[in-house]
Write a structure and sequence with these properties.
Pfam family, one: Phage_TAC_19
Radius of gyration: 14 Å
Helix content: 40-55%
Protein name: Phage protein
Number of helices: 4
Largest sheet: 2 strands, antiparallel
InterPro entries: Phage_TAC_19
Number of domains: 1
Distance between the termini: 26 Å
Amino acid sequence: MANKYVELQNEKGETKRYQQAPFIKGSVARKGMRIGKKAQKLEHPENLPEDFEDQFFDELYSFVANDLYAGQFTPEEFEDGIDVHEVVNVAMEQLTSVMGVDEGKTAKKK
């Protein structure tokens, strides 16, 4: 597995790099696949419940923070620590990292 990390900026403007957990259980891939299927539903949002997007992003950011980074930061710190123009892409790249797609570094420097 490549050395995966994410860089988050705190409220003081300081950037910190976090490494993915050294061991991630195989069952996390199953959870990631379920989240990936939900992501596909966003391509046709017209029949989705009004709160689907909020629930999806809460689940995605929690998955990244708790399952991939073993609670080194909170889902809120993940969401607010990445620029608005990059946060969704970074989260999705992190998600795909557990499904055999190896992108290397997934966060861009500011």
